[in-house]
Amino acid sequence: MPTKDYKSTDALMRHLRKNGIAISGSSQKQQLINTGYFHGYKGYRFFVSSQNRLPFISYNEINATIQYDTKLKSLLYGKMMFIETALKNIALNTIMDEVGSNSIYDMYDKVVNSYKNASPGTSEDIKKKFQINKLNLQGSIQNSIAGAYRKDNPKITHFYNNVNYNEVPIWAVFEILTMGDFGYLLSCLTIDMREKISRAIGINLSCDTYRELVYKYVYALKDLRNAIAHNDVVYDTRFRKMDPSRPMKQCLILEIGLPYINFKTIGDYIILICYYLKLLKVTKTELKIFIREFEKITKEYENSVNPEVTRLTIHPDLASRMTILKSSL
Prior knowledge:
mainly alpha; 16 helices; 0% strand
């Protein structure tokens, strides 16, 4: 009989015990089966990077970490979908008002940076960069349309399977854009158009000279949104793909009253989400309920793991930052 090149669940439990993790009984065995050894234990045994191993002493602590992360994703999912939808609609309406039509080609021509509409005095290299970005944007949008058509998305097939239509309007394109593609579209707009969208949202522009916050915050939120959607680990922000620019930090410091912000902890993403929810006129009551639920599940997690784990996973000034956040609402 050939030798197995994998371990059974019982063998994995023995392996965990050998490595200092207390695990036994049918209940914990089922937990290991449900969360998976590779997705669960191997995915949560470190904080941010594999070099930062967490000092777990029991499988209960690992399971508590997984449950905390799961509750966080459940808490954040609805808020992220709301923000994404609202930002797309505000940008869409502002663009259509500016170009005076719902034609994607009018958008390309009038409010997307390009060689021909660069500001006077723009260098040749920058003009070419604008044009490349515009062409990339057009290609990206065309690929999104083609992909939606292949998948029989009615928001797109409606326009191509009807002889009376010959162009997909801007609003239909916005319906199929991923959050990353939406952020890229915003980054390709002229500075005047980005300013108008930023003002329509309500973003503080006092430290945003080049009107970049409107798309850079979208990129930051996109990383979190994708981690939630793909059931990746969220609580330690290992999904973070970009370092925040000075304006990204300064805006929230001014608006919330924080001593600093760096997006290295999940608390900073809670702050960014609340900033946007406040801009989008979500009630103070709903915002406080959201923050209290975050604090509640975090406290439950703290009480479920040993202090050495908490020291690594919960930032020491999280509570004080949440207090500042609540007072800014």
